[in-house]
Each structure stands twice: as C-alpha cells, then as structure tokens.
User: Which sequence fits this backbone?
C-alpha cells in the first residue's frame, strides 16, 4: 500500500451505513408514497355502451354512464380514495356559453348521482370549467372576437364568474364532495364559495387550481376531453411558466377568498413551485396534478424500452410528494396502486 493511502484519514461518518439493507432504507425514508395519496381522473362521454380508448393516453378511456361500473370496481378494489370527473361532449352539444355544464341532468351531474348511489365510499371531485363545453374551447365567455386572429383572446371575467357559480351549485346539488375550479378567473373562489354557502352547501370543499400554468404538457388531455381551443391559446388567464413568485400571490388570494385546498398544475416540471407554496402556506392542503403530457412521455419511453415502468412511475410520484404535495391527481393512479401492493 502506498504511503499516501496509509496516511489518508479513515472516514468517521459513513452515510452508506444507513443504506446498507432494504429494511434500514425503508425505516429511514423521509417521504413515503401510499395509495391514499392518489386521485384518479375519469373522462365521461355522452352516449351509451361507450368505452373509447384515448389514443394519446394508453390505458385510459372515455366512459359512458352505463359503463362506469367497470372503472368504479377498479378504483374500489385498489382502494384509490377518489376520482376527479371531466365531461366530454360531442361538438353539436356545445355552444359559446357552455350551457350543457349548467344542466341539472348534465353529464357530470348525472355521473355524480350514479357514483354516489353505486360506490358512495369514493371521494368525488368535480372539475369546474367551461373549456370542454364551449364551442370555442376556452374557459369562459369570449369578448372581442376580432382579436382571435392574432391569438389575443379576451374573456369576460365577471360574466364567466356568474356561470361558474351556477355550475358549482349544480354539481354540489348532484352530490359532489369537492369542487375544483380550474379556469383561473379572478375572484372565482369568492364567488363560488358565496354561491355554495347561500345554497346551503357549506360542507362542499373547494380545491382551487390556484397555480395552473399555460403549459405545453396538456396536449393529450385536450385530445381526451375534446377541449382544445379552436383559436388562440389560454395565456391570458393561465399562468406564465416563467413565473414562480406570482403563484404565491395567486394562492394567497384564493385562501383569502375561501379555498380549502390548493393545487399546482402541472406537477413534475413545477416541483419548485410546489415546494415554495407548501412552505409559504404549510397549513393548507396542497394537491399537484401530474398531467397528461407527463404521463404520455413516460409511457412512450417505457414502450421504447428506455425506462423501467415500475421505477419511473413510483419515482415520479414520490418526487412530487417530496416537493410538498399532500396528494396527487395522476393518470398512473391505478398502475401505482397495483405496484404499491
């Protein structure tokens, strides 16, 4: 042995001691992932006998109400605590104001009643927006359409708030446990909370998409929900991906207006935002949405043999929890539940 090695100091602190066997690693793990951390998105389709594959999202489908028993059984058997519901309409059912979203017998409203009567143990979260219901694919009432040629879409914020409040009460009346406004309209939480309380739906919780970014990772969702904008984009109401501090302001306003829970969307590319929000508002439950583009990219990499499916699913979800999310809306919910068993 050389003189240099003989004189080299022996490490007194050896952190590898804490990693030397799996039982010790499990014992000392700071962040854990369980099935109780997962919420499963469900796409509802008008019609009968429909279980239509979503091409860009392998393993996911659009479900008509009469076919929901299959997915409800999977959710219940895997002990996934809840689902978030999205409606998918045919083009002829849409109009400029998203009128179908307001109907007491609307698609999501009917699904809520069905699930409550057949699987009451499942937590029901209803997404609240208009993009899937409007003919133009935007999240509210559009004004100044002449600007649409230049991509400058203007939404009548306050008129949209009135419609959001009406839709929220309709969803609560159907039996939703939680309502998740996703349109990023100014003042939406205050207006919806007031409308719910006045209609005696004080127990219904509000999960605000407080930090929803104008992201490129929503592509497969637009395919799944048939909600892509017909012109322009949503940059006038969703957050700029370059802004982090602005998310804290959005969250502070939503808390002030009555939000019970907050959400960051997307998740994997905004871990810093999740971390900052959780540390700024530690007592407020925080969700993160692992969106369709994140799901589709990992699925594609797995199919090409580039990634190990089990490891990439669990690691991606664990990282979101480690950043500070209390629970995760993810298209991997069923896969992860099976792996966690």
Assistant:
């Amino acid at each position: 042995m050389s003189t240099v090695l003989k004189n080299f100091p022996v490490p007194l602190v050896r952190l590898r001691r804490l990693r030397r066997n799996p039982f010790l690693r499990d014992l000392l793990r700071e962040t854990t992932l369980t099935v109780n951390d997962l919420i499963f998105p469900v796409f509802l389709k008008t019609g009968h006998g429909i279980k239509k594959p979503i091409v860009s999202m392998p393993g996911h489908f659009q479900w008509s109400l009469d076919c929901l028993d299959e997915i409800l059984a999977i959710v219940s058997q895997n002990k996934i605590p809840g689902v978030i519901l999205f409606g998918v309409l045919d083009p002829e059912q849409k109009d400029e104001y998203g009128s179908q979203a307001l109907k007491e017998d609307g698609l999501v409203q009917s699904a809520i009643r069905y699930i409550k009567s057949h699987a009451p143990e499942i937590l029901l979260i209803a997404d609240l927006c208009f993009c899937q219901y409007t003919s133009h694919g935007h999240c509210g009432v559009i004004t100044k359409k002449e600007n649409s040629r230049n991509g400058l879409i203007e939404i009548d914020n306050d008129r949209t708030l009135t419609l959001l409040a009406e839709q929220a009460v309709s969803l609560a009346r159907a039996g939703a446990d939680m309502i998740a406004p996703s349109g990023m309209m100014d003042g939406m939480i205050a207006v919806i909370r007031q409308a719910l309380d006045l209609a005696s739906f004080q127990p219904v919780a509000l999960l605000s998409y407080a930090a929803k970014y104008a992201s490129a990772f929503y592509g497969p969702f637009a395919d799944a929900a048939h909600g892509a904008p017909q012109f322009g984009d949503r940059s006038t109401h969703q957050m700029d991906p370059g802004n982090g501090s602005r998310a804290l302001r959005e969250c502070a306003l939503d808390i002030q207006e009555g939000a019970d829970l907050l959400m960051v969307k997307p998740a994997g590319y905004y871990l810093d935002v999740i971390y900052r929000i959780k540390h700024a508002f530690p007592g407020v439950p925080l969700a993160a949405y692992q969106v369709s583009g994140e799901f589709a990219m990992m699925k594609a990499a797995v199919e090409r043999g580039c990634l190990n499916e089990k490891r990439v699913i669990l690691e991606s979800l664990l990282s979101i929890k480690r950043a500070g999310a209390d629970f995760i809306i993810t298209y991997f919910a069923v896969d992860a539940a099976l792996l966690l068993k």
